[in-house]
Amino acid sequence: MAGVGQNATLSPIRSPTSVKRKGSSRKRAVSQLPPVQTPETHDAALKSIRASLRKQTSYDVFPVSFRLIVLDTKLEVKKALQCVVSAPLWNSDQSRFAGMFTVSDIIHLIQYYYKTQQATYETVAADVETVRLENIRDIERTLGVETVPLIHEHPSNSLYVAARRLIETHARRLPLLDYDTETGQELIVSVLTQYRLLKFVSINCGKDVSQLHMPLRKLKIGTYVASSPNSPVQPPNEDDEEERKTNPYYPIATATLDTRVYNVVHMFSERGISAVPIIDENGVVVNLYETVDVITLVRLGYYQSLDLTIKEALNERSPDFPGVVICNASDSLGTLLQLIKKRRVHRLVVVEGEAEERQGGKKGRLLGIISLSDVLRYVVGNLDVTEEEE
Predict the structure, then answer these.
(1) Which pLDDT band, with edges at 50, 70 and 90, does 11 fall under?
(2) Cα gap 335→13, rounded to integer Å
(3) Domains 59-200 and 206-380 share a fold
(4) Where are the domains of the chain?
(5) Which terminus of the chain, N or C, has less C-beta within 10 A?
(6) What is the pLDDT of residue 334?
(7) pLDDT band, residue 282 (cuts 50/70/90)
(8) What is the mean pLDDT of the chain?
């Protein structure tokens, strides 16, 4: 694993077995060879993980100590951003849960004012900062953005049910609600995220995770450049035929260091994505621009920075940015889950490695992108299949 950034080098994540150790003069005891890894062992491990998710509840994922910030829908967006970039919403007039405030809401809000009002930076700043959280859904409907479903689960339900709920609704976060036994009033207990759920799997199903040895490419986890050799076949989409002709990295949205920030904001809003790979003239990944980078500009009031190039905007990024996590398509699902256990990962950029380079490719060139949604969808399995059928 590695990061792509100011002080990072480009290299894929590697399994522990590939790490070279210093030689030793001490003789080692003869050990038995590990069992032969086959597709059957991979499938058995996957089935075992799913069985474990059915036995555990969302309560089991909670850390020993945590805090929960809940925002009143009457709060102004500017004040909300000073607290968090994501939080449950509470309707104080009706004393009930009102959904989630997320980074996507701010992206849509900025998109709305630039697209429909033809506003200047100054008016956008004024409007974005004074609008209340309760008005965001109306603005998104005007923009034509699909309405976010008001989803939630009880924390005592199984993790398997919660995971399927996340997949069905394409949500990254699932609010967990309970009820006061005396008043019957809703209580927001916590929020289950894709990352926390997958980290729980990697920690508590370690033996099974080590058996998930098959490569990401073969498992078709993630979205891959359609024109790349040996990439998983993408289902044809007639509506995207024009983009397929003009975008050499179709169906992945990309940008360069010279792309304007606002153009990337447009990609975030139109495609419903949270990150765009930044590539050079050869398609080699040099960085990643994320929705949280835009929120940093908005939080600081740098609305005029949205007209800067990505290269210029990256100067505003926090110096402790961990870098871009990359991998090769030949890396295994088990290795990916082990990585999630060690560090906070929200997505991985798949790049061409030595195998692709031998076939005429270029090492480090963009091949695909894997989100936590992709990983969770594979781990949980086909939503059309019932528990009995599995």
Answers:
(1) very low
(2) 8
(3) yes
(4) 59-200, 206-380
(5) C
(6) 96
(7) very high
(8) 82
- The verdict on domain 59-200 having CATH code 3.10.580.10 is yes
Residue type, 244: R
What is the residue type of 10?
L
What's the half-sphere exposure (Cβ side, CA atoms, 13 Å) at 390?
A: 18
Q: Is 236 exposed, middle or buried (0-12, 13-18, 19+ CB in 10 A)?
A: exposed
pLDDT attached to residue 316: 79
Burial 49-66 (b: 16+ CB within 10 A, else e): bbebbeebbbeebbeeee
Q: What is the pLDDT of residues 81-132, one digit of tens each?
A: 888 889 999 999 999 999 999 988 888 887 777 666 555 555 655 666 678 9
* Residue 108, pLDDT score: 83
Tens digits of residue pLDDT in 369-388: 999 999 999 999 876 555 55
Q: What is the CA radius of gyration of the chain?
A: 22
User: How high is the pLDDT of residue 34?
Assistant: 44
CATH 3.10.580.10, domain 206-380, yes or no? yes
Which of these, 172, 202, 214, 230, lies nearest to 368 by C-alpha position? Answer: 230
State the average pLDDT over residues 215-232. Answer: 82
In SS3 terms, the chain reads as CCCCCCCCCCCCCCCHHHCCCCCCCCCCCCCCCCCCCCHHHHHHHHHHHHHHHHHCEHHHHCCCCCCCCCEECCCEHHHHHHHCCCEEEEECCCCEEEEEECHHHHHHHHHHHHHHCCCCHHHHHHHHHHCEHHHHHHHHHHHCCCCCCCCCECCCCEHHHHHHHHHHHCCCEEEEEEECCCCCCEEEEEEEEHHHHHHHHHHHCHHHHCCCCCEHHHHCCCEECCCCCCCCCCCCCHHHHHHHHHCCCCCCCCECCCCEHHHHHHHHHHHCCCEEEEECCCCEEEEEEEHHHHHHHHHCCCHHHHHCEHHHHHHHCCCCCCCCCEECCCCEHHHHHHHHHHCCCCEEEEECCHHHHHCCCCCCEEEEEEEHHHHHHHHHCCCCCCCCCC
Q: How do residues 47-76 score in pLDDT, each as one tens digit? A: 999 999 999 999 999 988 889 999 999 999
